[in-house]
């Protein structure tokens, strides 16, 4: 496969599934056991831009400062994102959204969620 053109499957490379990980460190755990699985399909040569697929079991995370700018497309499940003012947006299968670095609030997954992501890290992997 060319590194200039990368096909992404929601089921991981060649449909063989995603690499299982531990409990997500996206934010502080508030509820549940949000064990994650993922596959990063592409990282540019600077290490600042990446794309892939991510799945996480149900749970709730408190976000004290989202670590990066991210574009998300929900493939299954749903996520409820609530900002510091109490405004909640619900994203379900087929929905697409962007979340900015520094966002504060909660990320609640009432059931397992899977998404395509595109991440931009501002500098040196941060």
- Termini gap: 29 Å
Integer average pLDDT:
91
* Oligomerization state: single chain
The description of the largest β-sheet is:
6 strands, antiparallel
Could you tell me the number of beta strands? 11
Widest sheet: strand ordering: 1-3-4-11-6-9
Structural class: mainly beta
What Rg do the Cα atoms give?
Answer: 14 Å
The proportion of residues in beta strands is: over 45%
Low-confidence parts, pLDDT < 50 over ≥5 residues? none
InterPro entries: RmlC-like_jellyroll, RmlC_Cupin_sf, UGlyAH_Cupin_dom
Protein name: Cupin domain-containing protein
Layout of helices and strands:
Blueprint lengths: L18 E5 L4 E5 L2 E9 L5 E8 L2 E5 L5 E8 L1 E6 L4 E5 L3 E4 L5 E5 L3 E8 L6
Antiparallel strand pairs: 1-3, 2-5, 3-4, 4-11, 5-10, 6-9, 6-11, 7-8, 7-10
Structure characteristics:
single chain; 126 residues; mainly beta; 6-stranded antiparallel sheet; 5-stranded antiparallel sheet; 11 strands; 54% strand; UGlyAH_Cupin_dom; RmlC_Cupin_sf; RmlC-like_jellyroll; Cupin domain-containing protein
Structure description:
- This protein has 126 residues and is an all-beta fold.
- It contains no helices and eleven strands.
- The protein has a six-stranded antiparallel sheet with strand order 1-3-4-11-6-9, with no helix packed on it.
């Amino acid at each position: 496969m060319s590194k200039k053109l990368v096909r992404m499957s929601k089921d991981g490379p060649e449909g063989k599934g995603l690499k299982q990980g531990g409990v997500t460190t996206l934010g502080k755990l508030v509820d549940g056991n949000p064990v994650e699985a993922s596959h990063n399909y592409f990282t540019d040569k600077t290490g600042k831009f990446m794309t892939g697929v991510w799945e996480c079991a149900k749970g709730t995370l408190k976000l004290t400062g989202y670590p990066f700018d991210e574009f998300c497309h929900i493939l299954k499940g749903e996520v409820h994102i609530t900002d510091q003012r109490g405004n909640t947006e619900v994203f379900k299968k087929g929905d697409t959204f962007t979340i900015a670095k520094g966002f504060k609030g909660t990320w609640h997954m009432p059931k397992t969620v899977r998404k395509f992501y595109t991440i931009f890290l501002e500098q040196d992997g941060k």
